[in-house]
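CORE FACILITY INTAKE
Project code: CF-77B
Contact: R.S. (postdoc)
Sample description: multi-component assembly, two entities in total
Requested service: structural model of the whole complex
Turnaround: standard
Below are the sequence entries exactly as provided by the requester. Do not edit them.
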Amino acid sequence: MAEEVKLMKGNEAIAHAAIRYGCDGYFGYPITPQSELLETLEDLMPWESTGMVVLQAESEVAAINMVYGGAASGKAVMTSSSSPGVSLKQEGISYIAAAELPALIVNVMRGGPGLGTIQPSQADYFQATKGGGHGDYHLIVLAPATVQEMADFVGLGFDLAFKYRTPAMILADGIVGQMMEKVVLPEPRARRTDAEIAEQCPWAATGRHGRAHRNVVTSLELEPAKMEVNNIRLQETYSRIAASEVRYKEYHTEDAEYLIVAFGTVARISLKAIEDARAAGIKVGLLRPITLWPFPSERLLELSKQVKGILTVELNAGQMIEDVKLATEFNVPVHHFGRMGGIVPNPGEVYDALVKHFPEAIK
Amino acid sequence: MKEEIIIAGFGGQGVLSMGKILAYAGLMDNLEVTWMPSYGPEQRGGTANVTVIVSDEQISSPVLDTYDTAVLLNQQSLDKFENKVKTGGTIIYDPSGIHRAPERTDVKVVVVDAMTAAIEMNNAKTYNMILLGALLKQRGLVSVDAVVKGLKKTLPERHHHLIPLNEQAIKRGMELA
């Protein structure tokens, strides 16, 4: 049977994909520009079909702690919000990471700081990739650029979260949340049964199952020596993730003399600028990180030996540029172009920034 | 074929849904489409706009500098987008909300009095479909059949009885343009 192509918003695609993945529970609180996610789940009423719980919590803090509870029992659970709401969730996210639990968190970013604006942004890059909450932890951070990726990264995010027992985040900008594109939804899967959870998640707090002990899920360990062991175990997990889960896409890099690094919708805006630049004789390519953590540092280091300069384009004051500079070990000049506060640059602005920083590129 | 379109007007004029129906029709014709709305308080009465790209190739940026075609339904939108239409492009506008006509001479300017036509059809809600008809007459892009199929797909069953009226409005728009 041919796959059915649908037209929908990124936010809606995530809701559909979550049900089809066999997600057990969604807990959230409405906030623009991601409210369609919760609205779509409520429209689709999965509690009547798959049995998935959809609950509008009393606050973002309540929602993330419901996720903590659901995750502790081995369920595939998720939450979503936008920037100010994700800030509220940070304590819970740190606890979930510390307790080594799988969960999916969606942030459809809007302009900050503070309540800011409802328009698109990427200013939560630091928050998503460098912790956000307290303590030495990482999230696996996926940055979708298309509505198709919004749908696909639900399954990918859950799979990685369960594989490594660590929370994963879909870090989208308001544009890809709000825009409609064609999408092929993933094949529906049944939710896992209690027996499957007991077998696949021996760590889950699901009862004794004949064992002498109960599983206790906690992030508290008052004994420093034991807490250090916990930290070392977390760091080992992060090393394994960094070694095998880096994802990125390259465009026109084979002969590139200059490189743009951009993620999410901004990568697509940059790609159009690159098409114009190539038409003007500038050999410029694009690297689009798909995992913002782990970051594609190795590939960037290689490319830094090939190109004469790098421009990062972000909807912020320059956050990812720090990772690009670290990765490329100052082999080449790295410049930043960004708009802030909900302003989205058009391809012409990106082209102008490229030419401004690398005037020698125009022969 | 690749057509980059901006539709802009007051929130409530049906700007976003006109774009949506066009995008669905593109889907029915197996084209690549993106539909990127302005979102937020515009929906409650300010200016709203939507960028629609219809193409037979993969679409890179959903955000654009310039457009092939602009459908402009109030003065603010005309002021904002008139100069962003490519040379040789098309501006379609409704004169009822506009006190300064477009001044560009390097684009095709098409006046469609959709408001009067909608009143004549005794249904103000046909307004955006009349304009869609005008757009299709001028630019082709998708077939009326595809629009009707798209409407069937997107409208809940209880609204399907309105499809013939919409089809009529599209045809009226085609006559006017």
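Facility notes:
- The domain at 249-361 of chain A is CATH 3.40.50.920 (Rossmann fold).
- The longest helix of chain A spans residues 224-244.
Invoice: internal transfer
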